[in-house]
Amino acid sequence: MHAVILAGGRGVRLRPYTTALPKPLVPIGEEYAILDIILQQLGTRGFDRVTLAIGHLGSLIRAFVGDGSRWKLRVDYSEEKAPLSTIGPLLNFVDLLPEHFLVMNGDVLTNLDYTALMEHHIACGAPLTVATYQRKVKIDFGTLSAEQGRIVNFVEKPELYYGVSMGVYAMSRKTLTPYPRNVPFGLDDLVLDLLDRGEEPAAYEFGGYWLDIGRPDDYDEANRNFERLRPVLLPGAARQDVMS
Prior knowledge:
This protein is α/β, with parallel strands linked by helices. The longest helix is centred in the last third of the chain and has 18 residues, at 216-233. The protein has helices at 34-44, 58-65, 88-91, 114-124, 173-176, 187-196, 216-233, and strands spanning 2-7, 27-28, 32-33, 49-54, 74-79, 100-105, 108-110, 128-138, 143-147, 150-155, 159-172, 202-205, 210-212. The chain has one domain (2-132, 163-233): Alpha-Beta Complex (Spore Coat Polysaccharide Biosynthesis Protein SpsA, Chain A). A hairpin with a 2-residue loop joins strand 9 (143-147) and strand 10. Strands 5-4-1-6-11-8-12 form a seven-stranded mixed β-sheet. A two-stranded antiparallel sheet has the order 2-3. Strands 7-13 form a two-stranded antiparallel ribbon. It is 27% helix and 30% strand.
């Protein structure tokens, strides 16, 4: 099975941690890089080939990952010369991908079963399957509804739940082949175009652990809880210092 890891972003929201390192290489728990955890997970889930879509500080990712043999994977690279958003990088090498493949961001910590996601995608026949998560958002204000100048409802600091994309997708090559190459093209562009054409993507709902390391607070949370989460993220993995 083939996975594509999107690792070309500048990680602006995670500065200053990403000033000298690409976001997938920031250390977690003083032992692992985020990307190392992802590659270990893919290897244990039956994936044998990975394409790393790189850009900003991509040479550091090449130096860290190499040919992937450390994880018993075959790794190749595609480098974008200018930012192409989420889906744009895939379009430059879509002809080299199998009919069905996994795509994920390089800054995601989760115990999602990637193989089960792929199996669901193939079975349902959707053009795209998005792994989804119910994210709780706490509103720090009292919220109200008004009609004709009168307050008719008031809730103090409510907690709202939204279905969000986990940054992990199962895709089919034929879904991407109609789109032009070397132009920015995001997941939102793809989903909206599929909906306009009546080709509804599938949702794969997940209720386990998921953290998108996009902000310093997220990164601090990942490090603070890593020892507790190690058996969840890396079941059976021996302690090792791969960052040295």
